Amino acid sequence: MPYPDRFYPVVDSLAWIERLTRLGVGTIQLRAKDLDDSQSLQMVTDALAITAGTPAKLVVNDYWRAAIVAGAKYLHLGQEDLADADLAAIREAGLSLGVSTHDEDELETALAAEPDYVALGPIFFTTLKSMRFEPQGIPKITEWKKRIGNIPLVAIGGIKFEHAAEIFAAGADSIAVVSDVTQNADPDARVRQWLGLPAEAA
């Protein structure tokens, strides 16, 4: 399977990790904010226990120390976390690394870290987090993909299932989804819709 999978939900609780794993999701990011070291280690350890023995790949957002100690295999860092992280320790632990980007400078910073994928966002307006960046729009996906070449490109921010075909056609390899799942009236049905996407772009 590719990494990250074409459908890449981002959630903030163990309950969501369990639910998505049960539905057969291949790549799931755990993004829980404001945890201290012991809380983050406990949460990452518990999440890894949920996904153990399943096809699900657990991506730990931000808490790189917990990811290393708990034996995670996948990590995602925002730009601030990337600046503070010990990349040598992350690589030594064998972690795959994804990095968020929002502008040219951040893309250069991300590429210098030799990431396993680059995320671009927000593609559309999103109410989930306060963003200092305007929506990137779909044409930026094509531009970013030309810049990064063979590195997988993840599109994130305000994306719904109905946008998927256009976003993949623009050059995204994967779509990270938050509210289209977590705030959906029928999350399980929505996940099944996403999982029904073709494995490759048409």
On the 0 to 100 scale, the average pLDDT is 94
* Low-pLDDT regions: none
Order of helices and strands: EHEHEHEHHEHEHEHEHH
Outline:
globular
Beta-strand residue percentage: 15-25%
What strand order characterises the main sheet?
A: 1-2-3-4-5-6-7-8
Query: What fraction, in percent, of the residue positions are helical?
Result: 40-55%
**Euclidean distance between termini CA atoms:** 17 Å
Alpha plus pi helix count: 10
Structural class by helix and strand composition:
alpha/beta
Radius of gyration: 16 Å
Work out the number of β strands. Answer: 8
Largest sheet: 8 strands, parallel, barrel
Features:
202 residues; alpha/beta; eight-stranded parallel beta barrel; 10 helices; 41% helix; 18% strand
Description:
- The protein has 202 residues and is α/β, with parallel strands linked by helices.
- It has helices at residues 14-22, 37-51, 64-70, 79-84, 87-92, 104-112, 138-148, 164-170, 179-182, 187-195; strands spanning 7-11, 27-30, 57-61, 74-77, 96-101, 117-120, 153-156, 174-177.
- An eight-stranded parallel beta barrel has the order 1-2-3-4-5-6-7-8, surrounded by five helices.
- Strand 1, helix 1 (14-22) and strand 2 (27-30) form a beta-alpha-beta unit.
- The longest helix is centred in the N-terminal third of the chain and has 15 residues, at 37-51.
- The radius of gyration is 16 Å and the shape is globular.
- The two termini are 17 Å apart.
- 41% of the residues are buried.
- The model has no long low-confidence stretch (mean pLDDT 94).
